[in-house]
Amino acid sequence: MNFDQEGTAALKSARIERLAAQSRHTPRCRILGLGGYLPESVLSNDELGRIFNLPDDWIFSRTGIRERRILAPGQDTSDMALVAARAAIADAGIAADQITHILLASCAPDGLIPNTACTLERKLGLTGLMAMDFNVACSGFLYGLYLARAILSLEPQAKILLVTAEAMSRICDAQSRNVRILFGDGAGAAVIGGGEGPGASVEDVLLSSDGTHGEILAANGAGSRAAYASPDDPVGDGYFLRMNGREVFKHAVCNMTEVCQSLLVRNGLRPEDIDLFVPHQANLRIIEAVGQRLGIPAENTHRYIEHCGNTSSASIPLALEDAARQKRLHPGDCILLASFGAGFTWGSALLRG
Q: Is 310 a catalytic residue?
């Protein structure tokens, strides 16, 4: 091992220990309620098969997806966020006016200005809150859990509404097979608070990123790279989501596996201690590959992708809500979450039921 490798290993070890120490002193953080929303319109594999001239069962055999939901004309990302938010607030057993902060993750928000969190605040009939958007693509829910823990360290009485809402169909080129068969629209939400009581405890969160691979999965949208000079300029190809599927698969499997292993080690846990594994619902092959590398049995992995496709940041809360609906979440359970998204961003979280 050369000097640089030793230095890198020492820095990584020191960072893990520092984060572990921080975790031990972080105030209690609990998920008080969950909510989700999927649009009514269904885009089936049969319909996509006819569009792209694909054999029967071709899409499902490669992705694990049978259908995805599509936002109706006239609906916005904030409309989905509103339904999910109301469901989470009701599940938490609180009134909307008890919410103190709104965190909204989306890579397909209503627009650039105003932020969608403020629009959601208005639609909830609230005012005066801290309301912010952030975009880490599919890793939005886990980054949001980290931000919520930070807020609770400053304001232990806070009631934080974390919403992940994605209108992916609005940024997918209708003629691009590799993205259109994967992505769907939807929203998930959680109400997060501190103190003792019912609800899954957020025991630890570990996040990471690597911007050197940004162009592998990207959409320039209406940002500065679009460089439209007037409203008459045609929309360029760069507006739409583009993806190198092979490279995304490779990085997703490696990074999700590694971050989960690091999180387990720093919490003194083994794969057999995990009662339920809830990964980002990106693609069934990714889900299976990560589970196998971690040594978590397939029956302990929750899958929801079949019914909604890849809903980006909304996928983990939607899967958690589905797991709760199926009574797969029990008191005392150890629940492992994992995500990977454009950027690249990735992370893992540990919940205790």
A: yes
State whether 46 and 193 are in the same domain: yes
Catalytic position from the list 29, 107, 138, 172: 138
Percent of the chain at pLDDT exceeding 70: 92
Mean pLDDT of 291-301: 97
Q: CA–CA separation, 179 vs 184, rounded Å?
A: 10
What's residue 205's pLDDT? 98
Range of the domain at 89: 29-198
pLDDT of residue 22 exceeding 60, the answer is no
Instruction: List, for residues 224-242, the tens digit of each pLDDT value.
Output: 877 777 778 887 777 889 9
SS3 93: coil
101 noted as active-site residue: no
Same domain, 70 and 194: yes
Q: Kindly report the average pLDDT of the chain as a whole number.
A: 91
User: Which listed residue (118, 280, 283, 302) is catalytic?
Assistant: 280
Are residues 209 and 178 part of one domain? no
Q: In the chain, where do the E strands start and end?
A: 29-37, 41-44, 67-70, 101-105, 130-134, 160-166, 186-194, 200-209, 217-218, 242-243, 276-279, 334-341, 345-352
* Residue 7 belongs to a domain: no
Per the annotation, the verdict on 280 as an active-site residue is yes
Please state the domain count of the chain: 2
CATH number of the domain to which 307 belongs? 3.40.47.10
